[in-house]
Amino acid sequence: MRKYFASLMTGLALLMTVVLPSLVIKFASSMVAGALLVVGLYVFLFAALCALHGPRQILGKLAFNVHVVLAVVLAVVFAQGVLCFLINTTFNLDRFLQSYVFLIIYLFAASFLAFLARALPKYRVDFAVKLVFYALLLNGLVTILGYRALGNPSAVGFFSENSHYAMSFLPFLLYIVVVSSWRKKWFLLFMSFFVVLNLQSITLLFGVITVTIFSLRVRQLVFLSIIAISILMVAMNYMDFEYYSARLNLMNPNMSMLSFLNGWERAYLNLKDSYGIGIGFQQLGFLGSEGKVFESIRAQGGGDLNLYDGGFTGSKFISEFGILAVMLLMAYSVYFMKSVRWLHEVSMNGGETVDFRKVFFLTCFVMFFIDLFIRGIGYFSSSGFLFIASLVWIGLPSVSRTPSRDNTSDHHLEPHNSSQSLIVSILQK
């Protein structure tokens, strides 16, 4: 009984991680307040586990190296901020210092999530992730039926915008599709497309298509494409696709497309105008160039749309950290491809894996590319928190990421001999 209760509590904690930042916007008009609650939650959980089991058992001998890396990151952010302050007389020092203090606890709290996952049995992590997925899926289905808790026409359940819902939902969708059997994969993907067509979100549509590509074979993708085209041709007579056609029109771009284009323009202009140094942490919207696309947004009544977040996190990151951000994004792209390949192999094996924790953190790492290059809401979001935790998990030594010895309930996931391996390979085909 204690095992199931602990698994449920783990799932609820993870659910609060993805829901609170967007939910609190209704009351605080900012995701930072919700992110602060998430940070406090993991600081409390980490302190409680250390009190029960001792810090050495939770952290391990080599966790100190992770905190050294985090300290180096913080030092680089501070040094670059000081340099930008000396260069720009209009540098917003108060915003920089406040954000920097929050960044410190934000990074360390995200690392606590990785350490807690390492200390948990893998079956508990699997249960927690699946609990969050089905809660988010139910959230979308309830919205389709007409319930919007926040009253906003673009809200999805307890998420203030459909894009916020998409960025929280997609890592969990990729996880459960990857670790599921083939029948369940197809069911989950069809359910996801059903949700997409009814919620009308470009971000969610792009993400679900991406998850499909990452988790299926080429011939399956061809088969699914034929079915999808056939369904769309029939559905065009019954459903309104104007939402998607308007947002994908490059000849006459609407506000969403202008915001996306403006993000790339501002990233280029700020990179060039700062000579590769960047304008400084959390200075976008206070410093830097705006560009012609931003003028078009204002001319069409968009006001200061995405002035501070750049439209997507990659734009903000490049604008504020210059060439350093470009190099880090290139490094991310390399490991992104490796992670996608590994997740695809797990999916091809029908979800066979020795550690669900690794699958979960890699799905958070991979799906953060939506925030980076498509649609983002700044650094301090739920998806950003999970991404930082995934980086810490990836940075942990491999010995720290081996499956727990008490996971006897998961032993059926691994072939024990060559004959069982042969049977598994036959079933996969």
Can you characterise this structure?
The chain is mainly α and 429 residues long. It has one domain (2-404). 72% of the residues lie in helices and 0% in strands. The protein has 18 helices and no strands. Residues 399-429 have low confidence and may be disordered.
Number of continuous helical runs: 18
Helix-strand category = mainly alpha
Apparent shape: globular
Strand percentage lies at: under 5%
Number of E strands? 0
Q: What summary fits the major beta sheet? A: none
Instruction: Kindly provide the radius of gyration, computed on alpha-carbon positions and rounded to a whole number of angstroms.
Output: 22 Å
Mean pLDDT: 82
Counting copies of identical and different chains, the oligomeric state is: single chain
Question: What's the short story on this structure?
Answer:
The radius of gyration is 22 Å and the shape is globular. The chain contains 18 helices and no strands.
Main attributes?
single chain; 429 residues; mainly alpha; 72% helix; disordered C terminus
Strand-helix topology:
Elements: H1 2-23, H2 25-28, H3 31-53, H4 55-59, H5 63-87, H6 93-119, H7 122-144, H8 162-179, H9 182-199, H10 202-215, H11 218-235, H12 242-247, H13 255-273, H14 292-299, H15 313-348, H16 356-373, H17 382-395, H18 418-428
Helix pairs in contact: 1-3, 1-7, 1-17, 3-6, 5-6, 6-17, 7-8, 7-9, 8-9, 8-10, 8-16, 9-10, 13-14, 13-15, 15-16, 16-17
